[in-house]
Design a protein that fits this description.
The two termini are about 25 Å apart. The longest helix is centred in the first third of the chain and has 16 residues. The protein has two domains: about 130 residues, no CATH class; about 110 residues, no CATH class. The chain contains five helices and 21 strands. About 15% of the residues lie in helices and about 45% in strands. About 35% of the residues are buried. Strands 1, 2, 4, 12, 13, 14 and 19 form a seven-stranded mixed beta sheet that branches. Strands 5, 6, 7, 8, 9, 10 and 11 form a seven-stranded antiparallel beta sheet that branches. The protein has about 270 residues and is mainly beta. The radius of gyration is 20 Å and the shape is elongated. Strand 8 and strand 9 form a beta hairpin.
């Protein structure tokens, strides 16, 4: 994958400048079905991506926090130079308590993302030091019920890469993360980036294995999607890929591969 703007949700674009990996079925004995985003995950060998604060906010509120079943609700997020600013509520004993926090992000030794709170105020005036003096920290007041999504150690949220996006999930080790006012820049994976011979600046390419899409099944898959207008980037929605295919056209290659010149999802989304 090169220069693809992924849309896990319509309000959550994430720019993937390059990604190499292996798509694998998530259900034993089944094959990848592109019409069911829960049927596969991507084991990332190498990926470089960037997301703005609005995307992280949408992913937190629409996927990560609800899936984890945590007391943290309705988070607003902005980025500074090396910092993440958060504002939201924590609901404890049925009572919502507002909080503001400043955090920094870094990889753990296991390749998860850790978001460590360095400054915090609860209820608008109780500082982090007073909360600690009372024996209260994030792990005490906001530990999620579903700790497979994320867990809290002290005042640090630890989020696996596989929990960052809704299906299809990305599985891999976070190598580096950098936060600027323009966005969060992450490198995932411990391998090198492959460079398939695709004559396009932006593309998705799947090769090998069996894949279902629409009413077709490809064996020894050779499927490529490129922008219909040969643009330098491609907006892509895994859940609505067929709509993009249907708005473009396909070419059968002499070696039985298939190339789809697809519509950009950004244009389809604005037109819907």
């Amino acid at each position: 994958m090169r220069n693809v703007i992924m849309f896990p949700y319509d309000n959550a674009p994430a720019a993937v400048s390059r990604l190499s990996g292996t798509a694998v079925p998530t259900r034993a004995g089944r094959i990848i079905d592109m019409d069911d985003v829960g049927s596969y995950a991507v084991q990332v060998r190498h990926a470089e991506m960037h997301m703005p604060a609005a995307t992280m906010q949408a992913l937190m509120n629409q996927y990560i926090l609800p899936s984890a079943d945590t007391a943290i609700k309705r988070v607003n997020i902005s980025f500074g130079n090396g910092t993440i600013q958060m504002r939201g509520t924590m609901r404890k004993l049925g009572i919502p308590v507002g909080f503001t926090a400043t955090a920094v992000a870094s990889p753990t030794r296991d390749g998860d993302m850790q978001i460590s709170v360095v400054k915090m105020k609860a209820a608008g005036f109780i500082p982090k030091g007073v909360m600690h003096a009372l024996g209260l920290n994030m792990s005490k007041v906001a530990q999620p019920d579903n700790r497979r999504v994320f867990r809290i150690v002290g005042d640090t949220m630890i989020v696996p890469v596989s929990s960052m996006f809704p299906p299809p999930k990305f599985v891999g080790r976070l190598r580096s993360v950098r936060v600027t006012p323009q966005g969060m820049f992450s490198v995932i994976g411990t391998g090198r980036s492959d460079a398939p011979s695709v004559n396009a600046k932006a593309f998705l390419h799947m090769r090998g294995g069996r894949v279902n899409f629409a009413r077709l099944t490809m064996a020894d898959t050779d499927l490529t999607m490129v922008p219909k207008g040969r643009a330098g980037s491609l907006g892509f929605s895994p859940a609505r890929y067929y709509r993009q295919l249907a708005a473009g056209y396909t070419i059968n290659k002499p070696d039985m591969g298939l190339v789809g010149y697809v519509a950009d999802y950004r244009g389809l989304r604005r037109g819907s």
